[in-house]
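Hi everyone, sorry if this is the wrong subforum. Our group has a chain we'd like a structural model of before ordering constructs, and none of us has done structure prediction before. Sequence below.
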Amino acid sequence: LSLSLSLSLSLAGEVTSLVLEMKLLADVGLVGFPNAGKSTLLRGVSRAEPAVASYPFTTLRPQLGAVVFSDGAQLTVADIPGLIEGASANRGLGHAFLRHIQRTRALLFVVDLTGQLFSGKEPLPPTEQLKLLRRELRLYDPSLLRIPAMVVANKTDAISQGAAAEWMDCLRVESHLPVFATSGKAGKGLEALCEAMRKVVLC
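Answer:
Right subforum, don't worry. Here is the predicted structure as tokens:
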């Protein structure tokens, strides 16, 4: 048995570091300010169990949940960490959070009907929340506003029915988007919201 070996010399190659990101994060992304109730909403519509607390920035990385329908169809929902004014300029890790929004098929703008987002600060009206959220998305990447979207008027359990109805009308006028009244805490309005997400994503 004889073996023959051949050796060849080659020039030094190049070393490159690559960062690979999954393009699609989820079917639907929950976008809102800290304490808007996004994590509680995710718990209500899916099997996910994100941390829920009464202080801001409980969520520091996207939390995923699966919404499973009776016929076996399902979609994924991502709780995007809370944005703040100036996120488009990378305030409050804004770029890290906004980047995740680019990886969803549809958006739910979650607004807090009580306006009580930050302890010790003046309430931020739901319409102003929505205006600021859309502004930050536009400043970061105008194409984000072309993603199919809906508005979730959350925490209906914390205000009167009349006040909730008034804010719903204002949000429709402000956004020209479908608006859904929900209470993630009380589990109200979630079935209609899930069906609307299904129509947008799976139909």
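For your construct planning: The beta strands are 26-31, 63-68, 74-79, 104-112, 149-154, 179-181. The CA atoms of residues 74 and 146 lie 24 Å apart.
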